[in-house]
Amino acid sequence: MASLTGTLRVSSLLLLEFRQSVRLQIRLHLNDRNTSFPEAEGRQMLNDFQIDLGAEALSGAHTLTVGHRLTDILHVATALHLGVGKFLTFNRNQKKLAEAEGLVVPI
After folding, report:
1. What is d(CA 64, CA 69) in angstroms, rounded to the nearest whole number?
2. By three-state DSSP, how is residue 34 classified?
């Protein structure tokens, strides 16, 4: 298998194609339980995908200037995706990121 280098470009149409294919597989499973995957699993895939996109946006916006770890990015992206207002952490960098994204960090 050939090795790929460089930036992988993703269009909004490719993102739509992924989401659409998951939804179609859910529909196919509803018609034939022996194919594809159930709705709960498909919805979890779409939810995970959305969190991943949010994490990518946070990484692009903050990592070069502050230097966040992936775990910090994922935790804050998940909190934002869930719509929480308060964020608990004992990590200084994670606190900076959460506050920069409008979350209240009481500690």
Report:
1. 11
2. coil
Number of other CB atoms surrounding residue 54 within 10 Å: 19
Domain boundaries, the chain: 13-100
8 A C-beta contact, residue 33 and residue 25:
no
The residues that bridge with 86 in the sheet, in sequence order, are: 104
Q: Are 14 and 23 in contact (CB under 8 A)?
A: no
Cα–Cα distance, 12 to 17 (Å, whole number):
9
Question: Taking a C-beta distance cutoff of 8 angstroms, is the pair 75, 89 a contact?
Answer: yes
| Global pTM value | 0.69
Token code pair at residue 72: 């910090």
Phi/psi at 104 (5° precision): -90, 125
Coil/strand/helix, residue 86: strand
∠ at Cα 43 (70, 41), nearest 5°? 95
- Are the beta carbons of 30 and 18 closer than 8 angstroms? no
Query: Could you report the per-residue pLDDT of 50-72, keeping only the tens digit for each?
Result: 888 889 999 999 999 999 999 99
